[in-house]
Design goal:
The chain has 9 helices and 108 strands. It is mainly beta. Strands 53, 54, 55, 57, 58 and 59 form a 6-stranded antiparallel β-sheet that branches. Strands 9-16-15-11-12 form a 5-stranded mixed β-sheet, with no helix packed on it. It has a 5-stranded mixed β-sheet with strand order 18-25-24-20-21, with no helix packed on it. Strand 45 and strand 46 form a beta hairpin.
Length: about 1500
């Protein structure tokens, strides 16, 4: 047979539960006959731990057969088939065991699958059946075989196996794909139950080709072993896979999935791990035996505390919000961490690009990136430990981002995809809370293929439903969707994009998502041919209308049973009711998905629908018609919710209840809105619909009066809003008060006890109405029941417990009461004995409480003790300590006794909690302290205001206190010296809208004291104001000013001179009205505007002016401005008399003359001098009003400087600036003289630069400006004092330009020098050494070279070390430059000096040739050559001669001499041409060497003549 055989094995777990106690199991086995044509091979099997007993039975024919016992329930008989190389090549058909029902269903499934197989399968099946029957008829005989026979048979089997292996290898090469198959679990992981702290390991064996990839999951969450190596270890060896879980904890109890995946498919198996805890009992000792699996944290009970909790949070779309809590787990166990999980609306949050969670070991943080309305909800932090869990929750509100166009709706939310198929998906969303200025008309749906950025609109017309089928998708591609809402004003922003969805067949998606593969059913499939090719598909079934709206109708059906392997597509047909005509809807392209959306149907008409299947073989039969379907909305709008009921919650929140909608389908949720009474603006409380009928609306303004309404929403749209709720004021709800504290015994007598306590810290939002005292008897360790001592509430914080028994011990507790109820009892007192006291000192003060708590201060008040002792109380002592300090931390707040019942404590640390107590004193001494009050946090509460004093326009003095935290029932209570004011004769108190005013009726010294105001039913809002005598006097002065107002002046009357000598009198008002009038008075005579006076009152600036053209003798006197503004008056005057008036008159005349002068050419700045940084001395002035014809003439000593003068070249003009550069160097350019009609060959050399200034430049310089408009002149005296002033300025510039002193070494010594910009001979420069003037000598000299000031120290010694200073005269005190020639500076300079000195000595004494030798010697052949060179050197140098770099020696040819240590000579008796060459005289001593080189050229005259003739 040429067909290839493929054996497939599928594993499936069939678990069925039956109520019957007995189950009948049947065992069926199937095996491959060794006689069949299928290849034979040996199988190596995995042995199980179960054992089967062999029994021998006799058949009807008398034959003995071996029968095995039934398999145990837990036996696993799945085997791998391996060849001799231990490679998996197939599978042994397993024995399937099940109940009757399971076997029957399995056989039916087998029959169904058989119908799908081809003819080859039928032939092979018949072959197997025939061979099985033949095998059944064979007699089973048991015979003994010899060892030889056994060995022969074994050898035959080995040879046969070798042949089969070769055949199998050949088949693999010919058709390798025949071996590929999906993953299969041969050995599945087994569930286990372990103790906490132990380590568990899950094993499994997986086969498949290609080799599957394994992944482990915990409760469907992928386990990342690399990220948590301390917890998990994953091993993969060949086909054996394992997961090791270390140090198991209770939270490791879960379902663990092993998932295997390759290109052929996926398989998975589940195992359950249960981690058990040890039972709690008696604590075992350290030497007691530990149970198996004991871990370090076993027996530890963890206590979890969540602190630093996040509050109700508000964010806006697009923002980033972080929530966090600090988690304390006690006790701390090494390497133990709790499981921290975040929830939104009770759904666990998974990390994504929008949600990031972090656990640092102490703090849990959740970060919401780019907030969207989908993020709104109740967030819960759950901390799981092995001892339990702890949670904390708070709501997060997400407000809509600002709309780009006013009136458009906000973005929809919660876009999701459903019912995805090959080319179809249903997109749903939720409507937004705010529709904008008009109702939403519909929605646009956009899609974008994953991996691109192109968004395409899916619908041309807006859809009203919040649900839309999107068609036309490409199979196998992923898409994301978004939605936009539209109303009359425009289109909203886009919603957050949906999660990506793949357009594919749901069955393919289910297979990829992973369910375990079906068990192998024993069917052998042959793939020789495909009998389904060419078969026309059958008809679809169950065609139904899943959705019907006014816009579209969605059909759904089941694919046909007979459809072949190539897949089918569908045509949809419709028929209008009342006709028999069927129209094909999708004529152009059949659809691939068993879903289809029909648009453009007529609303109100009825239609019938049916579906046909098609493939390459043709179009199948039609399905059964759906029947008549009327086009219209199936889903109605929800009905209006019930009437909302509100309840106060906190200062910024209100609880709203409402009735659920009575008629609603597929409710999405409710939106709650609120509006402040008096406005028509409705604002959303939630931007994400909620399904419950109770909601806490946060973010409201304290004290505002609000109404609420609710509307429901489903896919069809919004319901009508409910009716408005009753108005509610946003305030905290009233609750029962806290527990009283500090119950103490004040006095004890034979039959009664006096008790006192401190009022509770929290009043519950309402005034305390009274207290109840309970008591019980105590006898040893036995306590009795609590009994009430008073049936009527007490209004004080003390009580006299009467009718007690002497010498009996009692315990007491106190409960507070307000309008909400009675609080819990205080902490019981210690056992107190009822017996008479003999104490002489006063008892403890009562009723301690604080007011005016600020960052650094607080006011403590108390009541006198009930028991005064033997003498009355004459004072109190207040003690204070930090709340965290012990009893030794108490310190006295003051030294002297305080006779008042209050005291202000200052010097507190902001943010620190304190405790206070008070002790009373009488003549007998200081009594016991009161109960401690505290802890009191020294911190100014937000919104706290202080009392301030106001004086109104009528002079009324009042004190004002404002409070923004007023609640229902809150009142202002004014006190003087902390005693409530009951006498209204001194003060009148008015209150309005959180503001109270205490008006002084007749302020006097009787009103001195401390005025305080307390706001009841708040968190202690209070303040005080101390009115002192000085403060009262100041207020009375202000009051008088307000009663008799004076116009305030910003500036009193002043005078200034203007151009032309005009005089301006002016003043400026600080505060006035438009009705203000001014009178101008001179010497009590009213003056008016005219020729002499000009007046102006600029009411925009408040400036009042009066102008006079000139001052005359008659104008001496007093000038006054009188002002009237309603009842306010003002006067300001200026007196001009005597010398002051005459001086002003002169100035006026001068200014007028100046004005006249400036009408022509004039000097803006008169002639002066300046010295530049380059030390140029300039005479300069500024001129103005110059014309081209204006003459500018310079004079020196009354002699005009002509244009051809040398000084004329020093004059420069730059616009209005004239300068005369005194020190400018002018080169004389004389005309050359012509001698004999010839031009000179050279010009005169210019003289060296002249000094910047010298005494020759002294004189009187003058500049005159003149034209037809007038003239002006300016003179500068550069003689005597003027010359000296210029020189002093020059000296200052020179001294300032001097550089820091530097040091340089020479062969003679050390030089200190400083560079200046310029040096003048008259400049005085002095040098100091160690603050003493240096005397000039041959060794130490000072001087100037160019612009360098220097001090030379020849042959320096240690005495020359020290600080040197150069003093340069700068015209005043002088400028000093200091240099410290010691330390490193001295060492470096002295070392350099010694080096240079040695180098100079060496240079002077170095051997050298100083003369006598020519450069070139030309000598005739045969002549005698004698050359002598002069030599110098100390010591006398060594002398040698060389020729062409070869040393010469004295012999018959060369005569070398060196005489007197100075003269070295060389003599050559008769030179020849061989003597030509390069010679050198070498001299050398210990300081150096030198060579005097010369060239000798020997010539023959006769040879030269011959060469000339030839040439």
């Amino acid at each position: 047979m040429s067909a290839s055989l493929q054996v497939t094995q599928k594993l499936q777990q069939h678990q069925q539960q039956h109520q019957q106690q007995q189950q009948h199991h049947f065992e069926s086995s199937c095996y491959l006959s060794s006689k069949s044509s299928v290849k034979q091979q040996s199988f190596s099997t995995y042995k199980t731990s179960s054992r089967r007993l062999k029994t021998t039975v006799k058949t009807e024919k008398g034959q003995e057969v071996v029968k095995l016992s039934p398999l145990p329930k837990r036996a696993k008989r799945t085997y791998l088939a391996m060849d001799s190389d231990k490679e998996v090549i197939g599978y042994v058909i397993p024995v399937f065991r099940a109940s009757h029902a399971a076997v029957r269903s399995l056989m039916e499934a087998q029959d169904e699958e058989v119908t799908e197989e081809g003819i080859n399968y039928v032939a092979m099946r018949n072959l197997f059946v025939r061979e099985a029957k033949e095998a059944a008829t064979v007699d089973v005989k048991v015979e003994k075989r010899t060892r030889t026979t056994h060995i022969r048979e074994s050898a035959g089997r080995l040879e046969f196996n070798k042949t089969m292996d070769e055949w199998s290898t050949f088949r693999k090469k010919m058709n390798p794909d025949s071996l590929t198959h999906p993953p299969e679990f041969i050995v599945k992981p087994r569930g286990q139950t372990v103790w906490e702290g132990s380590t568990v390991k899950l094993h499994c064996t997986v086969a498949g080709w290609p080799k599957p990839r394994m992944a482990w999951y915990k409760n469907n969450v992928l386990i990342d072993a690399k990220a948590h190596p301390e917890k998990y270890t994953v091993e993969n060896n060949y086909n054996m896979h394992s997961l090791e879980i270390k140090n198991c904890d209770f939270i490791d109890t879960a379902q663990y999935h092993a998932s295997a995946l390759n290109v052929k498919g996926e398989a998975s198996s589940v195992a359950t791990i249960v981690v058990k805890r040890f039972q709690e009992g008696e604590v075992a000792g350290p030497l007691d035996p530990k149970p198996h699996g004991f871990c370090a944290e076993h027996g530890v009970t963890f206590e979890t505390t969540i602190i630093d909790k996040f509050e109700v949070a508000f964010g806006s779309e697009g923002e980033t919000l972080s929530l966090g809590c600090t988690v304390i787990v006690y006790p701390t166990v090494k390497k133990y961490q709790p499981d921290v999980v975040w929830y939104r609306n009770s759904v666990p949050l998974k990390p994504s690009k929008w949600v990031h969670s972090h656990w640092s070991g102490e703090r849990a943080t959740l970060t919401l990136v780019h907030l969207n309305k989908e993020d709104e909800g109740m967030y819960t932090l759950r901390v799981n430990t092995k001892s339990g869990f702890d949670t904390y929750s708070a709501y997060v509100f997400v407000r809509d981002a600002d709309v780009e166009v006013e009136g458009v709706p906000v973005a929809p939310l919660d876009v999701r995809c459903h019912d995805a198929n090959k080319d179809y998906v249903v997109v749903t969303w939720k409507q937004p809370a705010v529709e904008g200025s008009s109702s939403i008309l519909g929605y646009y749906i956009d899609r974008c293929e994953v991996g691109t950025h192109h968004w395409a609109q899916c619908n041309d017309a807006p859809v009203k439903y919040a649900r839309f089928p999107v068609t036309g998708l490409m199979e196998g591609r992923s898409y994301v969707f978004r939605v936009r809402a539209m109303n009359k004003s425009g289109v909203s922003r886009s919603s957050r994009v949906s999660e990506a969805v793949v357009a594919m067949d749901p069955s393919d998606r289910a297979r990829l998502r992973a369910g375990p593969s079906a068990p192998w059913t024993g069917i052998i499939k042959f793939t020789e041919e495909d009998p389904t090719v060419g078969i026309v598909p059958g008809e679809p079934s169950d065609v139904v209308v899943t959705e019907a709206t006014k816009s579209y109708v969605v059909l759904a059906w089941k694919p046909p049973v007979q459809r072949g392997h190539e897949g089918v597509m569908y045509y949809i047909e419709k028929c209008i009711s009342g006709t028999d005509t069927w129209q094909r809807v999708n004529t152009g392209m059949p659809v691939k998905s068993p879903r289809f959306a029909l648009f453009d149907l007529a609303e109100g008409k009825s239609y019938s629908f049916r579906v046909r299947c098609c493939n390459s073989a043709g179009v199948g039969e039609t399905s059964v018609s759906t029947g008549e379907i009327t086009v219209g909305d199936k889903l109605d709008l929800p009905s209006a919710p019930g009437n909302p009921v509100t309840c106060r919650n906190t200062n910024t929140s209100v609880v709203v209840f409402w009735g659920a909608c009575k008629e609603v389908k597929h409710l999405v949720g409710y939106y709650i809105e609120y509006s402040v009474v008096g406005t028509d603006e409705w604002k959303p409380c939630n931007n994400k619909p909620v399904k419950q009928t109770r909601f806490v609306c946060h973010g409201l303004t304290t004290g505002s009066n609000c109404v609420f309404r609710v509307k429901a929403v489903n896919a069809a749209g919004y319901s009508h809003s409910s009716s408005n709720s009753d108005a509610v004021v946003v305030q905290a709800a009233i609750s029962i008060p806290g527990k009283p504290t500090g119950v103490t015994l004040l006095e004890a007598v034979k039959d009664y006890m006096m008790l006192a306590w401190t009022e509770p810290a929290s009043t519950g939002g309402a005034d305390i109405r009274g207290y109840f005292v309970d008591y019980r008897t105590v006898r040893g360790d036995v306590v009795g029941k609590w009994h009430e001592m008073n049936h009527k509430a007490l209004t004080t914080t003390s009580f006299k417990a009467e009718n007690l028994k002497e010498n009996v011990f009692y315990q007491f507790q106190v409960r507070a009461m307000n309008m909400a109820g009675v609080s819990k009892g205080s902490l019981p007192t210690s056992a107190l004995e009822c017996k008479e006291w003999t104490i002489t000192v006063a008892g403890p003060p009562l009723g301690l409480h604080v007011l005016e708590v600020r960052d650094t201060s607080a006011v403590v008040l108390w009541e006198p003790p009930t028991f005064d002792g033997r003498t009355p109380v004459n004072g109190y002592y207040l003690d204070v300590k930090e709340a965290s300090a012990g009893e030794k931390g108490w310190k006295a707040a003051h030294e002297k006794v305080n006779k008042r019942k209050y005291m202000k404590v200052t010097g507190l640390k902001s943010g620190t909690s304190y405790a206070f107590r008070v002790r009373a004193q009488n003549l007998a001494g200081v009594g016991k302290p009161s109960a401690a009050l505290g802890p009191i946090l020294a911190q100014t509460s937000p919104g706290t205001n202080e009392i301030y004093v106001d004086v109104d326009d009528d002079g009324v003095i009042s004190m004002i206190f404002e409070c923004s935290e007023m609640k229902e029932g809150s009142e202002f209570v004014w006190s003087k010296n902390y005693q409530t004011i009951t006498d209204t004769s001194r003060l009148t108190i008015t209150t309005e809208n959180g503001r109270s005013r205490a008006i002084f009726n007749s302020p006097s010294l009787e009103d001195l004291g401390i005025f305080s105001c307390v706001v009841t039913n708040t968190d202690g809002f209070s303040s005080s104001y101390t009115l002192t005598e000085e403060g009262l006097m100041r207020l009375l002065d202000i009051s008088h000013e307000h009663k008799f107002p004076v116009i305030p002046f910003k500036n009193e009357m002043a005078m200034e001179l203007l151009e032309k000598g005009r005089v301006r009198f002016w003043t400026q008002l600080e505060k006035f009205t438009s009705a203000c009038q001014v009178e101008y008075v001179f010497n009590d005579v009213l003056v008016t505007e005219g020729k002499k006076y000009t007046m102006n009152f600029d009411k925009s600036t408040g400036i009042i002016e009066m102008f006079m053209d000139s001052l005359e003798i008659s104008d001496e006197g007093t000038f006054t401005f009188n002002l009237v503004d309603g009842k306010a008056k003002g006067t300001t005057s200026l007196v001009l008399i005597g010398d002051e008036f005459r001086e002003l008159q002169k100035k006026s005349e001068f200014e007028r003359a100046e004005w006249v002068r400036k009408q022509g050419p004039h000097f803006v700045e008169y002639l002066g001098f300046t010295v530049t940084q380059e030390c140029n001395v300039l005479l300069k002035c500024k001129i103005g009003n110059i014309r081209p014809e204006t003459e500018i003439t310079w004079f020196k000593d009354n002699i005009e400087i002509a244009e051809d003068d040398e000084d004329a070249q020093k004059i420069e003009r730059n616009d209005g600036d004239l300068t005369f550069n005194i020190g400018k160097w002018v080169i004389k350019q004389e005309k050359p003289k012509v001698k004999g009609g010839k031009k000179p060959t050279a010009v005169d050399v210019p003289l060296p630069p002249r000094p910047k200034i010298s005494k020759a430049d002294a004189g009187i310089y003058q500049v005159i400006l003149r034209d037809d408009r007038g003239k002006d002149k300016s003179i500068f005296d550069l003689t005597d004092a003027g010359y000296q002033a210029v020189m002093n300025e020059l000296f200052r510039v020179i001294a300032t330009s001097s550089s820091d002193i530097k040091v340089v070494s020479t062969e003679h010594g050390i030089i200190l020098y400083s560079n200046v910009t310029y040096y003048n001979e008259e400049l005085r420069v002095g040098w100091l050494h160690k603050d003493a003037k240096i005397a000039v000598s041959e060794r130490v000299k000072s001087g100037v070279t160019g612009e360098q000031l220097w001090l030379k120290i020849n042959e320096p010694t240690e005495k020359d070390k020290g600080k040197y200073a150069m003093d340069i005269f700068d015209g005043k005190d002088g400028v000093k430059r200091v240099f410290d020639l010691s330390g490193k500076a001295w060492e470096e300079a002295f070392e350099e000096f010694q080096r240079l000195k040695a180098a100079a000595i060496a240079e002077r004494n170095r051997a050298r040739v100083i003369g006598g030798l020519p450069d070139v010697v030309a000598i005739q052949e045969g002549k005698s050559l004698n050359l002598t060179g002069n030599v110098w050197g100390e010591p006398v140098p060594e002398v040698s001669w060389t020729k062409n770099d070869r040393e010469l020696v004295s012999d018959e040819r060369y005569t070398l001499k060196f005489e007197h240590g100075k003269f070295a000579s060389i003599t050559i008796a008769a030179v020849t041409t061989a003597d030509s060459g390069k010679y050198a005289l070498l001299v050398k001593n210990k300081y150096g060497k030198e060579a005097g080189e010369f060239t000798v050229s020997v010539y023959n005259p006769e040879e030269e003549e011959k060469e000339e003739k030839k040439g």
